[in-house]
Every structure is written in structure tokens, then in C-alpha cells.
Design goal:
The protein has about 200 residues and is of the alpha/beta class. The protein folds into two domains: about 160 residues, Vaccinia Virus protein VP39 (Rossmann fold); about 40 residues. The chain is about 40% helix and about 25% strand. It is built from eight helices and seven strands. α2 links the parallel β1 and β2. The two termini are about 25 Å apart. The mean pLDDT is about 95.
Length: about 200
Amino acid sequence: MNRIEFIASLTKGFDKVIDIGSDHGLVLKKAIDQNFIKEGIATDLNIGPLNHAKKTLTGYPVEFYLSDGLESIISDYDLGIITGMGPNLIGDIMKKASKDKTYILGANEKIEVLRQIICDLGFMIIDEYVIYDDFYYVFLKVTGGQMHLTESDLYLGPILKNKVEAIPYYAHKATYYENLLTKTKGKRLEELGKLYTIYKRF
């Protein structure tokens, strides 16, 4: 299963999904084609990608918004998808997110930073997923709530660390940091050593 198909599969059980930064609209197309959802909302900050989404989703029950994150959204939804962005940008978008909705979040780097931001904003992680599609992708399922994460939780994930499919991902991360250790000196060496130890335990 590729990344697009996997994200679409996470929409099961929801009726109307908003895809923030929907690009070509492929996630919503797949979700509707598979009867996972009934309606969609596609948004993008730029008109070019939004027009691509409109072309992909012609004839589909989808609304389109030229919007900076959730800024201009007036329609209701029960699941939000925000993926393929940096953790801080996702965090900025989530500042305006409703605590009574559910969101699928996927940062393109530093998932530990996103976990901390989400907790600081008053959201809790209710599930986590990892898939491999040329690269490893980690996704968080969150909703309003409070939770405390240890340093280990931030990197491994409070839920993901209990899933067998995460073991190859952790092994990959451990190897990555182990290789960096041979090329690093000074204070950075200590930091990398800590990360290697966290992931190596699995």
C-alpha cells in the first residue's frame, strides 16, 4: 500500500474530510472511490495546486477553498488531514483546529517536534501509524485532550512503540544515527548518541 492509499484508508468511519494542502486531490479521490467517506473539502494556499485538485475531483462531492490552513474554512467536517509539511507549519495550522474534531497529521521531518507541539496545543495522540513507501512515513491521529510524553515517547511514539510494524522503522533510525556517530565530534556527538540509544533498544 502506498502513502496516498494508506492515508485514504485512515478516513474510514468518517463522513466529511478536509484535506489541508490537498495538492492534486488524490487522497480525497481515493477515499471517495473506496466509499470510505461521503464528502470532502480540498484546500490549498496556492491557486495552482487547488486547480489541479479541482481537475482530479471533477464531479466528486468536494468543496474547494483557497485558504491558508483553516483560516477561510466555513464548512463543517469531522476529520482533518494535514500531511507532507514541516512540524512547525502543521503546528501553526493546528492552532486554529477545533478540539472536538479528529485529525491525521504527518510531518515530513522531526515527528518528535510535532508530538510536542500537539501536546502543547491541548491535543492528545489517540493512534499512530508507520508505513514504508520509498521512505518511512509516520502519522499521528489526534483529538482534543491532555497527555504527557516522556522524552522516549516523543521519539518513539507513545502508541507506535507498542506496534510490531514499528520495529523496522526504529532499526532504520538506529542505523542512521549510528552512521552519523562515526562522522561527528563535539556536543553533537552526545546528542546523536542519545538518539541512537533510544532507537537501538528496539
